[in-house]
């Protein structure tokens, strides 16, 4: 696929930089530019946005001429499970309480490992949950419930 | 005897039982995370930052500082025993340290590393005592243009020293500056890049980004290839022989000097010092043929250098209020949280805090010597903790920690997003460290650019007309040119590959 691209890392980096730079230019278009002497809120962001587009273009152009190392495998399983577990924790932390949310976070994320074992993971979840409730909730007063609103009335 | 009275002032603060305890906790945690591969000081300090709210400012900063230099000690333990650097700055130590271990001299290698680090830490602490006050005085004369140029230099140094492509690192810096600008603009009151999300009105917290990229992003990357430890070198005698002592003295002195100087440079921190010291030692040593096969000089020099650099990298942070690496940026965040405005005024407005932190560094180095030599057995067992137990725990501390900053779930989601971005950037050879540093400097740079141009009536030549500013920019330009010339560029890559 697309054999004329020598360096995929440069190619994607260039595209990301160009996209971010363009977004910065478009969004800061709503703000006041001002002058060099009296800079408005858009002045610095637009300089940076333009700079980022230039850097992205150089990377993109370079990707056609220079060969580079391949991208390598993406750890899709790790990415989805680790990020998913974190987001899930954020959603249920208040509702279910830490006594549910923490074990969910630990077990789901631990499943990303190729050496996953259920018994030891359960023990880890129990120990860490107890530790966090004692240290963060009782000790440091983080306002998260042990038992959430969904469970306790 | 100004220095002595200052040190006494510091000792009276750092020597209190409460602060001694936090110093000990700091270096203990530092050694622990140094030993554990896959968990670095940036992620750890980011995780612990919320906890430091409840501590007095001095105790909080003493503990966080301890984590940073403590991790340099711990990082070398894994380098020597299992050939895996616990920290980036310990990479060179694997070359000769592991070879020494394979020849049954693991104990001597560990002792050399601890002795060299302790000596370097002591000297570097003294250097801070001597040079920080005059530097803070110079810094008081800095105008907005000079500050702007100083930050440009810091970012360039960070780019030059980042691993992988130079161009990618430049982009990461610009992107970081943009991310740093998100939130309410102080001058106009306009909300920039907030997408009308109320949680973004205060900007994107750098702790959120640090935990996302260095915590989550690293976890995902480490899951690509989970390491299995097969065997750990046995530790027999810790005591170096008379011959060993003779051979380690000069490398320790040279390493300390190189590390101290390079540590002050913005953006460099510890890594450059360790590489530089090893390279120079290899050139000047009588035993250069033995390098790579277990030369004691190859352990002594870089280990002294990285610890010296860890200490002296506090100088720009303490005197100028400018972070030289992402750890220092988090320390500045901790100061701001505690209501202390970092900058050249800290030394006069908060003398006991300033000197207390410095004295605590020496005390911490002493703790580390004890922790790392007689108690080495504990850390050896820590290396055996499998990663599959470690990373869910890191994740839990990140999630609760990031929530407790402002008590909003939004930050957890934002952290997850930056975790994904961090992983993608790592895959694309874009180091996250320059982005984080730039993100913190973004608002500062804009403010100083604005002020400088206001004072000069819009004339951009002001950056070249002021001598301090012009000098700083010239150094930055030279560094960038030097790093991009083909010869040096190849050398730079080779250093990182080694």
Protein model, in words:
Chain A is mostly helical. Chain A has helices at residues 8-28, 43-65, 76-96, 98-110, 118-139. The longest helix of chain A is centred in the middle third of the chain and has 23 residues, at 43-65. Chain B is mostly helical and 498 residues long. Chain B is built from 23 helices and two strands. A two-stranded antiparallel sheet of chain B has the order 1-2. The longest helix of chain B is centred in the N-terminal third of the chain and has 34 residues, at 106-139. Chain B starts with a helix and ends with a helix. Chains A and B meet through helix 1, helix 2, helix 3, helix 4 and helix 5 of A and helix 8, helix 9, helix 18, helix 19 and helix 20 of B.
Question: How is the secondary structure organized here?
Answer:
The complex is a heterodimer of chains A (153) and B (498).
Chain A: H1 8-28, H2 43-65, H3 76-96, H4 98-110, H5 118-139
Helix pairs in contact in A: 1-2, 3-4, 4-5
Chain B: H1 2-14, H2 17-35, H3 41-48, H4 57-82, H5 91-102, H6 106-139, H7 144-161, H8 166-181, E1 183-184, E2 191-192, H9 206-224, H10 242-264, H11 271-284, H12 297-312, H13 314-320, H14 326-337, H15 346-349, H16 351-372, H17 376-383, H18 387-406, H19 410-427, H20 432-455, H21 462-465, H22 467-484, H23 486-497
Antiparallel strand pairs in B: 1-2
Give the gist of this structure.
Chain A is mainly alpha-helical. Chain A has helices at 8-28, 43-65, 76-96, 98-110, 118-139. Chain B is an all-alpha fold and 498 residues long.
Counting helices, strands and paired strands, the structural category of chain B is mainly alpha
> What is the number of beta strands of chain A?
0
Helix content of chain A: 55-70%
> Helix/strand-derived class of chain A?
mainly alpha
Write the element-wise H/E pattern of chain A from the N-terminal end onward.
HHHHH
What is the first-to-last residue Cα distance of chain B?
Answer: 47 Å
Average the pLDDT over all residues of chain A and give the rounded result: 88
- Tell me the total number of β-strands of chain B: 2
Mean pLDDT of chain B: 85
* Most extensive protein-chain contact, per-chain counts: A-B, 71 and 62 residues
